[in-house]
Protein: Alpha/beta fold hydrolase
Organism: Streptomyces liliifuscus
Amino acid sequence: MRFRSMACGAAGLVLVAAVGCTGGGDGDSEPTSPPTSARASAKTPSATPTPTPTPANPVSIPGLIEREHRGSDLKLGNVRVRTDAYTQYAVTYEANGLTISGIMNIPRGKGPFPALVLAHGYIDPAVYTSGRGLAREQELLARNGYVVLHTDYRNHAGSDDDPDNDVNLRLGYTEDTIGAVMALRSSGRPEIDGERIGLLGRSMGGGVVYNTLVVAPGLVDAAVVFAPVSSRPNENIDHFQRGDGDPVVAEIDKTHGTPEENPKFWKEAAPITYVDRVTEPLLIHHGTADESCPIVWSERTTAAFEKAGKDVELVKYKGEHHTFAPQWPASMKTTMDFFEKHLR
């Protein structure tokens, strides 16, 4: 069943079932959630009470799977930019009880148009401004006939605050991205084709896309990531934060335990553990000279998707760095060909 068929009208409410979220896509068969009690209860005398499943840790992929995700109330605000090809608006939408800001490019002409949600990479929230990040992609995709919703995420620009988000491994960004898709679908706007929606993420946003694919299979039709982070959060923290003495790391260790102290938590926080749940095609772009996110991260993620029998392609760009420069046009042609195949 497609995820979108489970939406409850304009409210954009979806309950994601936890069945089958024990992972295995990483080649590790250790269960990460208790088995359902339905099969056992069929053989148990009626006098014996049925055990109640233990809820998943809310700070985990299974915890996100169990959530009732909401995305609604997409509102267009002031016009920010008008071009010959599209109009850009300031927007807000609701995601799991928070108001999230962003920008949206709507192509000129007769719709409805397929839509893309863009998940940007890390930019310090203290200096971030609405719509910052993925500016080239916003422009080009809108000029090629896509409605583009660039989410700011919680704690950014005009979005509501979530003080626990950093300590909780920024999993709230995944909720914001799921909510963005659901808000597009339930908006009722004639320019938006709610049945044709894709995801595009860069760097940290690539990790947000991975999370979204495993938490909400069927939510979108296809996904693309550029120079993504590792699909194991502990590697990202070690690479980007621990070595720089980020004080948040000590708080993360205190709250959740280190990977050595609490390996179960870190396994359940990793989307690579749950790639068996993914149902959408995924295209990964990565430069061989990436100085920020080592290409080996994408190679390992691709191998896990392939082992699970998923539709994944890794395109490597010799000598290209993290931000993509000389080969960016070629990478975007490949991206638009990919979306043309799966969204048109």
In short: The CA atoms of residues 9 and 186 lie 7 Å apart. The longest strand covers residues 68-82. The first helix runs from residue 38 to 42. The domain at 3-41+51-343 is CATH 3.40.50.1820 (Rossmann fold).
